[in-house]
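Before a colleague's protein record goes any further, I have to sign it off. My question to you is simply how this chain folds and whether the C-alpha cells agree. I do not need a full report, just your reasoning and any doubts. This is what I was given:
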Amino acid sequence: MTDEPGLEPVPEIQFQKVSERTLKSRMIASLRQRPTRGIGLVIILIIVLAAIFAPAITPQDPTQVSLQLRLRPPFWMEDSVSPHFLGTDQLGRDIWTRIVYGARVSLIIGLLAMLVAGPIGVFTGVIAGYRGRSSDTVIMRIADAQLAIPSILLAVTIIAVLGRSLLILIVVLGVTKWVEYARISRAESLYLKETDFVLASRVVGAKTPRIMSRHILPNLMTPIIVLASFTVAEMILAEAALSFLGLGVQPPTPSWGSMISDGRDYLSNAWWVAAWPGLAILITVLAINFVGDWLTEVLHPRSVL
C-alpha cells in the first residue's frame, strides 16, 4: 500500500494535525505553569489596544500646552479633583495622554526596526551558512566588525551624519541588530545543509534558491520568532535611549525617552514627569520579555517531544 501514490500525503496531513494540537497544548500548559507569562501577554494586549484606540481613551491633545497647568501633581496629591490624574509636565501637557500616544511611537518603531533587522540578518546568514567559502568569510567579518562597535555609539554616529527623522531612526535601529539574526541563521544553515532531506534535494537536482526557500528558511522560523520577540523589547529601549539623548523622535511628538529627558530637571519637585514614562518602559519591556521566555519554552526544538 505504501507504493500507491494516493496514500502518500495521508501520514503527512495527520502528522501536521497532531503537531498543531501538541503545540497548542504546550502553550496552554506553559501558561498554567508560569502565570507571569500570561500576565505579560495580557499587558502587551492592553498596551497595543491602548495605542490603537488612544483618541477614545484620552480625548486630550498630547501636544497641547497650558502653562497655567504646568507641573500639576497626580490626582491623589491634589486637594481638588483634576482631569490630569497622572499630573502634567513642565509645559502643562497631560502626562497620561502623552504616555498613551507614546506607546504608539514605541511599538511602531520596535516592530518596524525588527522587520528591518530580521530579513537582512536571515538572508545574509543563510547565504553565509549554506554557500560558505568567500560568502561566509565576507559576511561574518562584516558582522564581527560591527559587533566591535557599541550599538548605541553606531546609532548615534549614523544619525548625526544622516540627520534625524523617524524613517532614519527605524533603519538605523534595524541595521544595528541584523548581526544577531545573521549569526543564528548561519549556525542553523550550517546544520541544515547536511541533513538528509537537503542532501536528497540536491541529488534530485533542486536548485539552491529552491532549497533555501523550501527547506532552509522554514526550519529557521522557530529561533527567528523567538529572537524577534526580544528584538522588539531591545528596540523600544534603544529608541528611548536615543530620544533621551535628543537623537530619537523629535518634539512635539510624544516619546517615552524624551519625556524622561524632560523630567530629569524636575526630579526634586515634580518626580512624576519622569517616573511615569519610565514605569511605562519598564512594564512594556518586562511584558515582552515574559512572552519571549514563553515562546522560547514552547517553540524551542529541544523542548518538543
User: Anything to note?
Assistant: The domain at 102-305 is CATH 1.10.3720.10 (MetI-like fold). DSSP finds 13 helices and no strands in the chain. The first helix runs from residue 9 to 33. The radius of gyration is 24 Å.
